[in-house]
Design a protein that fits this description.
This protein has 3 domains: about 100 residues; about 90 residues, Immunoglobulin-like; about 80 residues, Cholin Binding (left handed beta-beta-3-solenoid, Ribbon), CATH 2.10.270. A hairpin with a 2-residue loop joins β18 and β19. It contains 2 helices and 26 strands. The N terminus is likely disordered. The chain is elongated and about 85 Å long. The strands form 9 sheets. Strands 12, 13, 15, 16 and 17 form a 5-stranded antiparallel sheet that branches. Strands 4-5-9-8 form a 4-stranded antiparallel sheet, with no helix packed on it. The chain is mostly beta strands. Helices cover about 10% and strands about 40% of the residues.
């Protein structure tokens, strides 16, 4: 009988210990949702390093632990898509009970996840934006002749934008260039020293543009040369790409071609004017920018490039374009690559 009481006492003690050890698990609160932010400074051509990425969370229920880059490369290339593995650790009194629908990632995309050593840690696989969304900064820019600007190609640039300066002051509007040269002769109507700035335009998304890079040298145009350009191209400065902060065309009572201090635009009979589109006028095609001004130079449209004359603005067809590049356009106006 005494032995039975002793065994019963031991069983009761064991049960008590088991319950006591289970209390923390039952008392711990579920983490049903996680939100993290990812920021990176990954650059094409630079080393693949975790020092260039930061993963953060504002939650007090868990912390960000190890961050590992899964790409097995030494340096980033133009076609790479960065992938990370991020460990989250629950704080005391919490454990994870999450699903794909409750994982929020800012700056990346959740791919998959798995439990860590216990319910107190999770490991998430994330995919960051493709590096194709980047465009490099031009690092060398100068002149191949008095009037032809030339620069070194940069990564992920399908085209370039250039803007001219005369004696240190901006001169004319931004122009588009398909290759790595641009003939500024139609713009050099005054004697003086010319410089320019150039930036790349992303191949996949023309809204993504690199930083401006200033030419490392200037080109001096004397009065005789300027006079020859005025004779050849006229005295007007060609228009180009309109910056977003430029004014829209001023209203006019007339129809047809209109001109204000920003450039040329076309007013239809119903009072409207074309924007972000082509319009045929007197048998010739012209392109108008987002606020309605006529655009000259190279124009990207539906994956093809067209060239509009520097002064008159009409699209050229079946000829060599006068930008010094030697490029030719076909009977539809598209560049023959």
């Amino acid at each position: 009988m005494g032995r039975m009481k002793k065994i019963a006492g031991l069983l009761s003690l064991t049960a008590l210990l088991t319950i006591a050890m289970s209390v923390p698990a039952f008392a711990a609160k579920k983490i049903k949702e996680v939100s993290i932010s990812v920021s990176d400074e990954f650059k094409i051509g630079e080393d693949c390093s975790t020092e260039d990425v930061e993963v953060t969370s504002k939650s007090k229920k868990y912390t960000v632990g190890d961050v590992e880059i899964l790409n097995e490369i030494n340096e980033w290339g133009p076609s790479d898509v960065p992938e990370l593995e991020v460990t989250l650790n629950a704080e005391d009194g919490y454990y994870f009970s999450i699903s794909a629908a409750t994982i929020n990632v800012k700056g990346g995309t959740y791919v998959s996840g798995r439990k860590g050593d216990s319910n107190y840690s999770v490991i998430l696989k994330l995919r960051l934006p493709a590096l194709t969304n980047q465009v490099g900064t031009v690092e060398e820019a100068g002149w191949s002749s008095k009037n032809v600007a030339s620069w070194k190609e940069t990564y992920n640039a399908g085209s370039y934008e250039v803007t001219l300066y005369h004696d240190g002051k901006k001169y004319g509007t931004i122009q588009s260039a398909v290759g790595t040269t641009f003939d500024f002769a139609p713009f050099m109507k005054k004697a003086g020293t010319y410089t320019y700035k150039v930036r790349g335009v992303n191949t996949a998304d023309s809204k993504i543009k690199g930083d401006w890079f200033e030419s490392q040298s200037g080109s001096y145009i004397d009065e005789a040369t300027a006079e020859s350009y005025r004779t050849q191209y006229g005295s007007a400065i060609p228009t180009g790409i309109t910056e977003p902060d430029q004014q829209i065309p001023q209203s006019s009572n007339g129809t047809g071609w209109q001109k204000d201090n920003k450039g040329w635009w076309y007013r239809n009979a119903d009072g409207t004017y074309p924007t972000n589109n082509w319009q045929q006028v007197n048998g010739k095609w012209y392109y108008f920018d987002s606020v309605g001004y006529m655009v000259t130079g190279w124009i990207e449209w539906n994956g093809k490039y067209y060239y509009c004359r520097p002064v008159d603005g009409d699209m050229l067809v079946d000829t060599v374009v006068p930008d010094g590049s030697g490029r030719r356009v076909d009977s539809t106006g598209a560049w023959i690559q």
